[in-house]
Amino acid sequence: MRIRLVVTALAVAAVSGCASSGSSAGTAGAARGGSRSQDVIAQEEINTRANDATNALQVVQKLRPQMLRSRGLVSPNDMTGAEALPRVYVDNVSYGGIDALSNVQVSQIKEIRFVNARDATTQWGTGHMGGVILVITKR
């Protein structure tokens, strides 16, 4: 009987430990200054942490520079060495390459979101090996 109680207690402790490990990332995020996502820049964060920026490119460079990085080569068989860089979409409409972000004024931005290659392909079709930087405007 005592052995069964010990085994049950250990099982409960193990399950509790696994369940709480999922929330530790949120705690770590809060310790860094809030529960911000690495894939989303909200208007509030732009207003408080990038208030000197004038366009979306400056915002991303300052707050989430990892959004701008290459995701490898376009194709392993591509001998040109073309890098898989994110494409830019504004309100779900293709807007161009990363440099197009400089054409979006901060006053227009509601949110900037990085969409990984798999999800971008599902939403907008092929040709998004570097993912998508989606800018949602205030409209």
List the helices and strands and how they pair.
Blueprint: H1 2-21, H2 24-31, E1 40-42, H3 43-49, H4 56-63, E2 87-90, E3 93-96, E4 109-115, H5 117-124, E5 132-137
Q: What labels would you give this structure?
A:
139 residues; alpha+beta; 2 domains; 5 strands; 37% helix
Task: Describe the fold and architecture.
This protein has 139 residues and is an alpha+beta fold. It has helices at residues 2-21, 24-31, 43-49, 56-63, 117-124, and strands at residues 40-42, 87-90, 93-96, 109-115, 132-137. A five-stranded mixed sheet has the order 1-4-5-2-3. A hairpin with a 2-residue loop joins strand 2 (87-90) and strand 3 (93-96). The longest helix has 20 residues, at 2-21. Mean pLDDT is 79; it is low at 9-35.
In short:
The protein is α+β, with helices and mostly antiparallel strands and 139 residues long.
- The overall average pLDDT, rounded, is 79
CATH superfamily grouping of the largest domain: TonB-dependent receptor, plug domain
Number of helices: 5
β-strand amount: 15-25%
| Shape assignment | globular
Q: How does the major sheet shape up?
A: 5 strands, mixed
Stretches where pLDDT is under 50 for at least 5 consecutive residues are: 9-35
- The count of β-strands is 5
Major sheet: arrangement of strands: 1-4-5-2-3
Number of domains: 2
Helix content: 25-40%
Elements, N to C (H/E): HHEHHEEEHE
> In CATH, what is the class of the largest domain?
Mainly Beta
Report the end-to-end length measured between terminal Cα atoms.
67 Å
Gyration radius over CA: 21 Å
Architecture (CATH level 2) name of the largest domain: Beta Complex
SS-based class: alpha+beta
State the CATH topology of the largest domain: Ferric Hydroxamate Uptake Protein, Chain A, domain 1
